[in-house]
Amino acid sequence: MQTRWILVGGVTVLLAILAIYGTTCTGCSKDSGPPKRTPTPVDMATAGTIKGIVLYKGTPKERKPLSTGGDAACAQEPPPLSEQVIVNERSGRQVLQNAFIWIKGGLGSFVPSVPEAAVVVDQRLCIFRPHVVGVQRYQTLLFTNSDQTEHNVKFAESLRNPSHDQSMTGAGQKLPFWFPEEAVMMKVICSKHSWMSCWIGVVDSPFFSVTGEDGTFELKGVPPGSYTVGCWSESLGVQEQPAKVDAKGAVELEYSFSK
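The chain above was modelled as a monomer; its predicted structure follows.
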């Protein structure tokens, strides 16, 4: 009888721990699940496009090598460079990589459908890849670990979303999240490796983009309307521009940052 009560008590404690864990993870754990929504239909026959380029003016600072010592799994030769500001030259102009562009205002009561596919951020050779990503509100953001070493996913800046600090002890592990609130931008770090960081932009629409090596962006399928389009760059700040999209129209924007 005593053994039975010990077992029952142990199960009770375990259930209590699970209940607490579920409560603390509400809003970003896939266990709880995001709420169901009825999307606003978009008439693609009248939808337009917002596209453009993000420029950099002046002489950019030289990208510094990251110090990745202390963990053999992180060794790279040559060492990786800082991704805080990446300036490339294209067609005689300096363009900015890793800028995040999104429709910041003007969508009103628009409700988007949520993609089933996850946005993936991998930890490989002790670097978050990619450095800047966008994800829709309620969409799955999946962190993976490709390294034979321990990492952790810590939200250093989560804004209005729950903050987390969860370990990933080895290769092959996956850690899914979803976010209840818009947030531009959230910073994620690895407490195990001080140089590791990435940025997550959470928006309540599919109208966002991250510039690649050519510094360009394109937002497709935008309903006709007047919008505010934001452009964020790590350490360089945020800029905004108006954009009026006519039926089947195309709007071109140009942003310019300097040190």
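Residues 144 and 174 are 5 Å apart (CA to CA).
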